[in-house]
Amino acid sequence: MPDAYENINMAMRSILTTDIGDNEDPYFQFNDLTSMSSTSVLSPFSSSGSQGNMSMTSPMSTSSSPMHITDDYINLTNAVTILGEPYISVLVQPMEKFRFRYKSEMVGTHGSLLGVYNGRKRNKNNVPTVKLHNYLDKAIIRCTLVTTDEDLRIPHAHRLVRRVDSADIGDPHYMEVSSQNDFTAEFVGMGIIHTARRHVKDEIVRKLREEALEERKRSNIDATLNLRDDAQIKADAEQYQKTINLNSVSLCFQGFIKDEHNIMRPITAPVYSNSVNNLKSALTGELKICRIDKYTSSCEGGEEVFILVEKVSKKNIKIKFFELDDDDTEIWMDYGRFSELDVHHQYAMVFRTPAYRDRNITSPKEVFIQLERPSDSYCSEPIKFTYKPTDRMIGRKRTRISHSNSAELVQALAFNNDILMNTSLTSTPLSNDSTEISKEIKKMLDDRCSSSEFRDFVEHINLDSKFLLYETLLNQGGEDKLTYDGAPSKKASINFNICYLQNTLSKFLSLYQCCMLDDKLFAKDVIIDTIKDMKMKPREAKDIIKISFKDRTTYGDTPLHCALRYGQKNNVKRILMLMSTLNTDAEELVNIRNSSGKTPLHYAASQDQPEIIQALLMLGADPNITDHYGQMPLHRAVKFLEAEGSINILLAEKDVNIEANTDYGWSPLQLAAQAGSYHAVYSLIKAGADVNNTDMTYGRTALHIAVEGGHKDIVEFLLKNTKIDVNKKNFSGNTALHTAIVTPGTKAKEICALLVKYGADPHIRNYNRELNNVDGEQIQDIKVEVHSEDENMEECNGQSSFDLASNKPDILQLVSGQNDMLINNTIKEENINDTQKVWMDIDQEKQLASILDETKGWKKLAHYFDYKYLMNIFKQTSSSSLLLLNYIAIQTNTSLSELTNILQNIGEEDAATYMSQILSMKHET
DNA sequence: AATCTTTTCCC
DNA sequence: CGGGAAAAGAT
């Protein structure tokens, strides 16, 4: 069916010989025209509605068009011709995601539908806005809610309400436009009411009826709907309710004018906004990866990764891996592997990584992962992910477990088991070795088996031993069962389980110990054998060395690994000496990785053995090899508090990668900051480490981390001697100051003071929207002028450092810049000079505060500034007024003269008078 | 009966 | 307000 505006256009073109085409700048021309002739243009609609031959089905047909040809027409034609046909454009689109609320939720006020921030003009009201173009008289713009489906735009079952004077008005909404408002309609305060599924049909029927009736009335004012129409509408509604998408709506805008019978007549085609999706629904809600447990995988894929996500539905979610080339073109993609069962309660997922496109990479490859929702192909923000080269080269076949003899192992198990089961571990008379073992076991139990060595062991334990172990365990379990008799009570069975678990654990531990015993002798054995062999065949000495030091234990350890692991310094020395005879051939031996990916250098670094590190490096050890946790020797070395040697030796090595992240996403600097190793931090920074690098899991800089650990010396060093960004936000939007305020500890206050001293901005807000204070009262949003231009609008409602400090009066004073004790005098003076221009100096402030303390006027003042929730804090301090004044000075833009007025208004005459004095003094200077 | 979705409720 | 979660309803 032809639209009215099309017909208008056709009529125009038939009249005119030349077609001026679309206007490049209709706005400009429009202004031109209005200024010269808007008053002389007559309304062309004076006689519409009296037409007898209107189409019954289309209100928009040619004949019902308001632009029919009359004598007035020529006048308008000229204008319209120059302008083009009237149309509506969407100046500000509605936001893409919005929470639809049920009727039952519409008590009180909730947020209204805002516009999307559109880059150019920063509207004061950022709300959906449309503009009517090419029309000179006043007109009406109607806004209704329709379906998103472009092929089927029907009225939507949901309601579009608009709050006008505390009453919600349903759609349609009419807004008058004219030259007065630049033909622009802003739809302020709209909300979307989610029609309950069971009412969808009724609602659609209602809206279709309304629409049909309006259409009828355009041709006949007294028209009503007959039964047949009604039946049709009901049938249609029935159909629509099945397919309608309740989580997505569009706004429909159309221009109208009202004729003398109050009938709306369209003057433009309808225009549809972008879709608005229900924020609450898992079908259309936001997709986000909130947290990931690791961001690396072997290029072979198949590694398990845990992620926490915002609400997803398990049937409608994928995890996409993709790689971009330098031009940001996607060059590879695949999906993470998981089943529906791996999606935990819509908020967490466990998946396996797909293999990288090339399984033979030799350097790490950066790719991205993101969530993808197949139903609307919406994607989350991508996060970085790294594929690492495989370590297939590590041989595990050569296990050198001497007691593969069952009897021997069982005996060993029994032996160790006895030790463990004995209640008093230490009191049992034991040989030296046994004492050591029991200590080990005790330690292991204390660590709850968290040691990576133990995990490696369990993982790589050879099959024979495993079988044997299980067998033993089964037998053991059976015996336990037999000894347990009587009716099973819950308690008893729990006890049994615990007992059983303990047994299992101890078995594994015993086995671990046995292997360790064996491994302890490994280095020595090999050295002895090697030397023996060398004596026998002195000519083949080099080959003998090469071969024998490639031998491996269960863990893939070479003799050198073993000697290092067990602290056998002499063995280490012997091996290194033997290796050094090989010259460059030693490089291969010295870089062998064991089954957890560690080289001898890892162990030397972990144990802080500078001489050995030096020796290994001289033999060609590569300091950049990472173990299976992505750790380089450097990552381990930075943890030592006092030792300077190891780090400096490692850092002196050229090509050492000082920014490398572990699999948990930590750089050496961040680890050093966490460990509290001042020296390591110092050395790394001296070696050029980037202080503003952030860790991958929380987005923290070394500063955040040092603050968290309460390492004041490091914090101070970072602030004083580096260009660290004191106000950098981590993933949750917290700055180091936020962290400092919430971190307990004796040095917390001093650290806060340091941060403030070096420019930490307490106004910065994090992304946490919980605005409840300690008393559970709602904190009103403090009206803080955000100065930074690049901040998003949403970021305004997180917590500032003030909010976090609101129940810690001393820290609050500190961040408010009030405490003189802790802040260095020079800095303080600078601050004062800065604020002095707009604020009073400290003495004047104190004077004013004493006046307000006297009269208790500060309470009124606090009330005026809506600081009710801070009352308790103000009360606790020696001068409530002074703190309040500081608060006002820092958090608001109140000028001195404004303050004077405020004081006047709340009846604080004395204070106001004093203020006037200050003001006049300021004017003089 | 268990689990997911929709609706209501509450802080 | 905006966010979260319980209750009710569906599958």
Automatic annotation (TrEMBL):
Q: Where are the ANK repeats?
A: 596-628, 664-696, 698-721, 732-767
Instruction: Show where the RHD domain sits.
Output: 83-283
**What is one Pfam family matched by this protein?**
Ank_2
Say if the entry is tagged with keyword Glycosyltransferase: no
Alphabetical UniProt keywords: ANK repeat
Q: Where is this region: Disordered?
A: 44-64
Q: Does the keyword Ligase apply?
A: no
A single GO BP: innate immune response
For this UniProt entry, the molecular function terms from Gene Ontology, in alphabetical order, are:
DNA-binding transcription activator activity, RNA polymerase II-specific; RNA polymerase II cis-regulatory region sequence-specific DNA binding
GO cellular component terms, semicolon-separated: cytoplasm; nucleoplasm
Q: What is this protein called?
A: RHD domain-containing protein
